[in-house]
Every structure is written in C-alpha cells, then in structure tokens.
Fold this protein.
Amino acid sequence: MAFTQKSDTRVAVMMADGLEMIEGLTVVDLLYRAGIPCDTVAVGESRTVTSSHEVPITCKRTINDVGFSFDDYDVLVLPGGVPGTPNLRACQPLCDALVRFCDQGKLVCAICAAPSILAELGLLEGLHATSYPSYQDVLVDNGAVFEDEYTVVMDDNVITSQGMGTALDFAYMVVAQVLDDEAADAIADSIMDVG
C-alpha cells in the first residue's frame, strides 16, 4: 500500500527504550493509511529503540539528528509502557516541546502511562483526561479531572487514552482531529474493525 498524502499536518510519534510497541506502532500504521505524514522519533542517540517486550524498532529520526526540530511538527504522540514512559519523561527537550505545543494550541496525545508526563508538566491541570488506571493518582494529584468511563478523552488540544487495548480508538481520534471523523471511520472500515 503506497502512501498517499492527504494532509500537510506532520506528526511525530516519540519513542524511547521500553515503549509499549502496540501503542506507538498502531498510531503510525493508521496515520499512514489515512495519508497523514508521520515520523517515528527516538529520544536517544540511536535510531533503534527496544520495546518493553524486547522487540527492536528502527525510528526514522532521533532528536539528536542534524537539523531536527520539534517545530517541524504539528502533533506530538507519546506511547506508554515502562520504562518507556520514564525514559520519555527524562528527555528535557521533549518535555520543553510538550509545554510549547500545549501553549501554542498544537495537538498533544498520550496513551497508557504517558499521560502522567503531561500531568507532571502541569499540562493537564483542569482538563478531563484518562490513563492506565495505576497512573490515575498522578493525573489527579496534578489537577486533572480523571475520566475512567471512556477509553479516549479529548479536552482542549490534548488527547489521552488508557492503554494497549485502546490503541485503535486512540489512533482513530488522532486521525479524526487531523482530518475528520469520516476519515477515521473509513480507516476503521478498511481494517475490519467491527468494535
């Protein structure tokens, strides 16, 4: 299936050693199908990261590449996983970019444990959000309104989701925000999602 670009919006899916690969790669797959330009970006020195289940993933770029700039992107996506989430949180340039994106009203998306990064940066204060249940306290302690009834929650310019089992819904929401609901529904139909 060849990539057919349908949007000028550029997405960076941020990857670190220990990520939950389904949460990251599901977004990459569905954005590709939707025609949304997407780069996998490693936060370390190497383009290859190793998932929490010891599967190597080679990213398109690293934040240390010559010429890399977060300003080249319109959307940032944070997969969860442990120790992937703490490894993303330890990347100060990424944290600075997340704050800047939120201040600029750009779309920021996080799933599973990764919404805790947004919470700790003060980016979920007063917003409705969700996460993997064991990270609920981090969100609440940092001023978020925790939602556990919904698999994906969007408030303002932030999308959060609960975990690997909600990765498709999370990716559909990203597609819907970049393109529209019809595009997300078309992707769901094309992959035989009957849920």
Remarks:
- The helical segments are 21-34, 84-89, 92-104, 115-120, 136-141, 167-178, 181-190.
- Residues 60 and 185 are 28 Å apart (CA to CA).
